[in-house]
């Protein structure tokens, strides 16, 4: 299960970073055209915001899966391995519960905005395009947190 999750997480993170890289090229072209030709590419802000959403939320499952969050480990590192695993399992349970709640409430907000027909300001990109990577990333963070929780739970009882 872990290998499949890692492959998916790496692919999604690469897609998110790729979208941001393409958008940066558009921003560079916009700045260059503005300075040299006096012409601006319409909608660069909309595209940049969409790419940022995609990059952040598609990379988050990789962060969750590899436990690359910011943490303070000086207490847990001094504990015996079994207790350390239990503390991490408890943290994983809280993380999973929090991410499920965030995903649930975000889905509710997305439904409202989609029903209202919200769009981006300049290009009129449907708000759905912004919510799809965000909700997918959040849901996959829940799955990644569940995988990590399972690993720590097994370690806490096997050692």
Question: Would you write up a description of this structure?
Answer:
Helices cover 77% and strands 0% of the residues. Helix 1 packs antiparallel against helix 2, helix 2 runs parallel beside helix 4 (128-158) and helix 3 packs antiparallel against helix 4 (128-158). By secondary structure, it is an all-alpha fold. The model has no long low-confidence stretch (mean pLDDT 90). It is elongated, with a radius of gyration of 20 Å. The protein is built from 4 helices and no strands.
Topology:
Blueprint: H1 2-36, H2 44-65, H3 81-115, H4 128-158
Helix pairs in contact: 1-2, 2-4, 3-4
What is the helix fraction of residues, given as a range? over 70%
The total count of strands amounts to: 0
Share in β-strands: under 5%
Overall average pLDDT: 90
Largest sheet: none
In brief, what are we looking at here?
The protein is mainly α and 159 residues long. It has helices at 2-36, 44-65, 81-115, 128-158. The model has no long low-confidence stretch (mean pLDDT 90).
